[in-house]
Structure formats: structure tokens, C-alpha cells
Amino acid sequence: MLPIDPSKKITFQRWISEGDLVIVYEKHDHMKAIKVCCGSVLQNRFGVFEHTDWIGKPFGSKVLSNKGGFVYLLAPTPELWTLVLSHRTQILYIADISFVISFLEIVPGCLVLESGTGSGSLTTSLARAVAPSGHVYTFDFHEQRAASAREDFEKTGLSNLITVGVRDIQGEGFPENFCGLVDSVFLDLPQPWLAIPSAGKLLKQDGVLCSFSPCIEQVQRSCESLRTNFTDIRTFEVLLRSYEIHEGKMECSADDESGSLGSSPCKKRQCSSGRRNGKEKWDARTVMARPCSEAKGHTGYLTFARLKCL
Prior knowledge:
globular; tRNA (adenine(58)-N(1))-methyltransferase; 7 helices; alpha+beta; 7-stranded mixed beta sheet; single chain; nucleus; about 300 residues
């Protein structure tokens, strides 16, 4: 989340200032979060970078080191923050997060309850979705995790949109002062069925609940609990498949010269063998796409349900 400009609550500060958190991008799989401080330096394999040189530059700038190497300074959006945050617990990633926000029908101004906070990956995206006038109340039973989450939300400039509480939601339920005021509830708990009755009391009529569980047995028991006061109960598994795009060689022959429908022209390059089986052969450069050899598999099941209207 870019730092919020207090004078214009719907816009953001696009220029880096001292004390801002920036995501230093070295390459797609190597990024780190750095707080900008005058007099401080960042040292990596590309050289030494002076923080002072960053101040006043817009997010997205390319900055040079003393050796001529470079990095990019990116804004700490929820998507990037998810990739660099400290993993105190297993986190939700972009595929699940975007699905959750869409199906929970979260828009600016919503009041959202979450348990548990964990590493705060989802919480950050929830805060951006409810900004500037909504609020996220998130709870974790572990006091140190809750304190670390507060520090992270301060760093990312989201503390005015998020309140972190220490509470055993499975044993105590949510605070009753939210009764009938909540738009959406998200549960990431070992035994979510214990918290479902409490969540039902707090949701507005037609409010939506989501429970994230890694095991199908947890889903089955949660659905049994949901049938009492909820309807439109649905469970999803979100699987993400990435593709590799790269340039490669493809062997062509004279018979292929006309090309298939929609193909782009390619430059002939004579093969060392000259002719094969009496036909001219050459290599063509083309762009190829194929599924990545390593793909993320199962993360968890997302169960959604809507509170029955009386």
C-alpha cells in the first residue's frame, strides 16, 4: 500500500520520502523491504546504494549504485508485501487472496472481521479493499504474533485501517460489540466450526463468511455448522498454473513455407546438413509457451456462506 496522503484520502503519495518503506527489486525472485533513512546505505552484489539518492524520486524509479549497477524502488503494494514479509505462519497468496476479496464482496467502507492474523498477508489486502472509510479488525490468540503484525502494518502505512486484537476466537468468539454491524468475516482457524455461531451473530443480514481450511475433513465439519444459519454454502480450491514464455528454435521445411493460419513469417537459416530427404531445411526463431515444470499445488479449501435473511 502506498503511503496515504492525509489531505487527499483517496490518493497516494507517489514520491519517496524519508521513513517510507520501499520494495527493492533486484530480480523477479529477489526483493526486500527497506525503510528509507538519510545516511543509510544498501549494499548488495550490484554495489552500494545511498538512501539519500532515493528521496524525492517516484516509486518505480531505477537507481544506480557506485559501480553502475541498478535496482528498482517499488511501492509496498499488498501483492509485493506478500512476497517479502516475514513468515510467522503459513500465508495466503495472490490467487486465494483475490478470490476471497471478490467472493466476500468487500468494497470501500466495509467492516471486516478476520481470525487469525498470522503473518498479515491477507489483512493487508483486506485493508486496501475497504479503504479509505472502512476498517479491518483482525484477531490472533498469540500475543507476540499480534504485536509483530501491528509493527508490519505501521511500516506499510495501514495502521489507521487495521486494528489488531489478541483473542482466542475459537474459545471466546468475536467481541459482541460488533453485533449486526459486520459486512464480512474471514476465518483461518484449525477448528472454524467453533467460531461460526459467533460470526453469525455479528454479520449483517445477507453478510458473507469465508473459512480457509487445508483439510477436507475441516470443510465437512464447518459445512455442518454453517447449515444452521447460513445458505448458499460453496467450497472452492484455487489452483494456479504458470507458463514459461521464451524464444526458441523450430525446424522448418519447404513444405511449411506457407505457414499455418495465424503464424508470423520467420527468417530462413540454412541447416548445416543442407538438404534432408531431398527437401530444404532451416531453423526458425519463434516464441514458445509451456507450463512451468514446478507448479504450486494445493494450498487450501475456501468455503463461503451467506447469512440467512430472517
